Structure prediction request, 245 residues.
Amino acid sequence: MKPNHLTLGKLLRNLRAGNGWTLREMSDRSGIPVSTLSKVEHDRLTLTYDKLLQLSQRLGIQISDLFASPSSEGPVAITARRSIGRVDDAIRVTTPNYDYYYLCPELRRKRMVPILTRIRAKSVEEFGELVHHSGEEFIYVLQGKIEIHTEFYDPVVLGEGESIYIDSNMGHAYLAGEGCEEAVVLGICSSAAEGLMDSLMSLHGPANSNLSEAALPQSAAKKPKSQQNPSPRKTSRPGNRRRVA
Prediction:
């Protein structure tokens, strides 16, 4: 069964047909025997790198053109997706360790999930088991300082304006740094896998859906004294019980 993707054989056959050459004429131009070219065109043989280089030089084409595998589906359509992220419109999830504000919730099937997070846990014992999930994440400290614990590295402390990028499959925990009641960070989680948002939500377990009109506190060292005026635009999606982060 012939492969559906664009092979080297199909590339050479298209190149030869486009120039109106016979196999003999292409052989004379490239210095590669007719029998070899015929086998390559029928996907029964491939060429070594030195032969590909010879082919590109003799025929005046880029060697990268011989490795290209363009999709038969055509160019990717521009979706022109856009979303303005405001805390008042975020999905808020409260857990013992964090308050999460999932921004731009109206966009579905995101490959990146932006999250503002208020961190309260102050020790690994208080935090509990390290969190694992698919993908990678970037964390930027907005207020206070944080202590990052990971499965394979020593703990590191970051202050305002500092950041970290990690493999999310590695166990990890973010704690409020020494002297901070709370810290606030901006996180970006990404994954090539489908359902990233649902995967993240499932980590929270039976989280508290305490939704408030108030945005993040102006100071990371102060908790808001009360939660008022629930907003009907915010909905909590705690997901299935797995791990409360």
Helices lie at 8-19, 23-30, 34-41, 49-59, 124-127, 196-202. Residues 8-66 form a domain with the 434 Repressor (Amino-terminal Domain) fold (CATH 1.10.260.40). Residues 207-244 have pLDDT under 50 and may be disordered.
